[in-house]
Amino acid sequence: MTTKATNIHPVFDRILGREDKEGILNQNSKVIWMTGLSGSGKTTIAIGLEKELQKRGFLTQILDGDNIRTGINKNLGFSEEDRTENIRRIAEVSKLFLNCGVITINCFVSPTIDIRDVAKEIVGKEDFLEVYVNASYKVCEERDVKGLYKKARNGEIKNFTGLDSPFEAPENPFLEIKTSEMTPVESVEKVIEAILPRLIRN
Ligand code: PPS
Ligand code: MG
């Protein structure tokens, strides 16, 4: 066990601020936070969205669960405690990008209201644009892009979201995308339409 550090003196007020950096990039930074079941379409939308935003001159960074869990969070699993720590760290990382003027596109199952509240609190609710990527468990299981649903059914994966680990839909998201009713291109268009006005710097 490590002991918690003391004698820490943060210098937040003396470093170049967010406004200056947003000015350099000529954009408003935001955290686009996509939540949804595994296989609901978060990553697909994020990739399409990043391309569309890049075409329009915005600087973005995708933060994706599957990637982050091979690096900064590779010591974490899928217990409630580990998922909360996963999301806490990601929210802190997102805040660093936010302060750097960069738009992050986050793809995390982030399964419960409490977990997303942790993120929202750290990022700040003004900058936290919650996108609910909605596809039912049944639809995601039929897609089963990564074969995880089959493994979860066979008991090879424990704590699988929607099966033996809870998923709570957001009650009042910034935006909801029903991916079983739209193509990926249409989904990206809908996100762009809703989000663009928030990103443009006047
Ligand atoms: S969480 O709940 O926000 O901490 O999860 P996240 O960091 O987004 O990681 C989800 C990706 O991990 C893979 N995976 C699982 N997902 C859910 N439950 C269990 N038990 C699990 N085990 C592995 C899976 O590839 C998830 O990616 P997506 O893109 O959501 O399918
Ligand atoms: Mg994904």
TrEMBL record:
Question: What CDD domains does the record point to?
Answer: APSK (cd02027)
**Where would I find the APS kinase domain in this sequence?**
29-177
Q: Which residues bind ATP per the record?
A: G36, L37, S38, G39, S40, G41, K42, T43
Which Pfam family is one of this chain's hits? APS_kinase
Give GO BP annotations, semicolon-separated: hydrogen sulfide biosynthetic process; sulfate assimilation
Which domain of life, per UniProt? Bacteria
The protein's annotated pathway: Sulfur metabolism; hydrogen sulfide biosynthesis; sulfite from sulfate: step 2/3
What reaction is this protein's catalytic activity? adenosine 5'-phosphosulfate + ATP = 3'-phosphoadenylyl sulfate + ADP + H(+)
Lipid metabolism as UniProt keyword:
no
A single GO molecular function, which one?
adenylylsulfate kinase activity
Q: Where is the active site?
A: S110 (phosphoserine intermediate)
The enzyme's E.C. designation: 2.7.1.25
UniProt-listed InterPro entries: APS, APS_kinase_dom, P-loop_NTPase
Q: What class of enzyme is it?
A: transferase
SUPFAM superfamilies cross-referenced by the UniProt entry: P-loop containing nucleoside triphosphate hydrolases
What are the entry keywords?
Answer: ATP-binding, Kinase, Nucleotide-binding, Phosphoprotein, Transferase
**Per the similarity annotation, which family is this?**
Belongs to the APS kinase family.
Biological role stated in the UniProt entry: Catalyzes the synthesis of activated sulfate.
Name it: Adenylyl-sulfate kinase
Q: Say which species the protein is native to.
A: Labilibaculum euxinus
